[in-house]
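Sample 1 of the test manifest.
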Amino acid sequence: MTITVHGQATSSCTARVLTTLFEKEVSDFYLQHVDLASSAHKQPDYLTLQPFGVIPVVQDGDLTLFESRAIIRYLALKYEGQGSPLYGRTPEERAKVEQWLEVESQNFHVAASTIVYQLVSRAKKGLAPEEDVVKATIEKLESILDVYEKQLSKSPFLAGDFFSLADLSHLPRTKSLMKSAKMPHLITSRKHVNDWWQRISTRPSWIKVTEMASGLQK
Amino acid sequence: MTITVHGQATSSCTARVLTTLFEKEVSDFYLQHVDLASSAHKQPDYLTLQPFGVIPVVQDGDLTLFESRAIIRYLALKYEGQGSPLYGRTPEERAKVEQWLEVESQNFHVAASTIVYQLVSRAKKGLAPEEDVVKATIEKLESILDVYEKQLSKSPFLAGDFFSLADLSHLPRTKSLMKSAKMPHLITSRKHVNDWWQRISTRPSWIKVTEMASGLQK
């Protein structure tokens, strides 16, 4: 049965879901474009799928599911037997995947998103960044990435010797931090973090998603 | 093998882990008190367990695991065959548990924690709340709880007809929102949210954890 993904390839959360589908070698899916510019995500029909009015939503048969990190967990389990073992191979590996996926969501994502909002989204609205917020958040992110540097000196990926949901979940926001917010040095100045970024951002799944996104932006 | 939980019963994140252990009828665990007042969580020994210097951490044999929502997922799976089915009984139920657990973490927790910080933590430091932040965050939380009200009019628990990790994860922060921040009306003014709160906050597991916490506070 075809999986429908309601979203936009340029959105971080949709990109997380699409990358998982490619990693799992699922080709039977359809991306239903949700036009944020015309507020399609705030219309009654869409709100019956996603009551908070955000993207993405996935429909798989009778199941309607939102929250990108819930969707990628669902896909990793449903397609456990094919593609990359995104949840690891043992209960202990899986626990470590969950741990670093939570670190991404509770720590990295919060800080990186604040920086992107301050330096990119506010500029689009003609607002200056709030300098004290930017400074404090960069310091916070530096300390998070120092922990990553130590962890990635011990293993090639966050949860161990395998590419997992935890690494994957960092891809979209790290890209916008490096490109849109023009802060590549946060990554490139740390040897092991930079090696990890090279390793994960050159995966065919992610290259496909960035191509889908840049096709939309042209 | 005895599970060691490094934390404090009064901490929201530790409480989440202890409630899961009680729901799973795991009695073979030991709570190793981490004295935050003396900065025990910032000492080198502790930082080898939890490099970000926060609580809790769980040790189970050779596995050391942090991030409370990763720990509760691990425990729900490890003890799948005993106690409450906190992850549901089918892949679809489990997907819905993940969805609402992410809503808790990304939406409810962020807003509720900001309110508790503004009205409780700042007062302890002699600082006044930032009124514009409080107002905007209460509005945000009201809109989140309106979605909960609709969802809970359709099923007794967030993910369906069973108490799950998603409900459980709301317990500590909702308690501090209602008691410490003195905002019970956010819950009690919504019929279905209030019924749900009565249903989940009277579970023996949670009562045990609140008793452990109030024993410490005496």
